[in-house]
Amino acid sequence: MRPDIKKERREKRKLSIRKRVSGTPERPRLSVFKSNRHIYAQLIDDVAGVTLVSASSDEKGFTKPQGDKKAVAAKVGQTIAMKCKEKGIETVVFDRNGYPFHGRLKALADAAREHGLKF
Known about the structure:
By secondary structure, this protein is an alpha+beta fold. The chain contains three helices and four strands, in the order αβββαβα. It has one domain (3-114): 2-Layer Sandwich (Nucleotidyltransferase, domain 5). β1 and β2 form a beta hairpin. α2 runs parallel beside α3.
């Protein structure tokens, strides 16, 4: 499959998800983006249009764990959950951003759930 068609299909799925998923100050949206090298997660308040908390495998001070990309995604999930606890955020809405819910996305979500986030 051509990359441009693949990207268009993901964008279409993303829009259909975003019609239903929206973040509020009480329950922000946990949006995940993944590239071939890194994975990014951020909590967004869609009412005010601001990012409350973010974590990625690309930021300074992030130590990559031994293992595959799933281990890195799990570490990012753990990091975002810890940052949320510091801000007093407990519940979120998960936005998979058009990606299938398995592999790295599932590892990030499971790690965030293990460390106290509810979604």
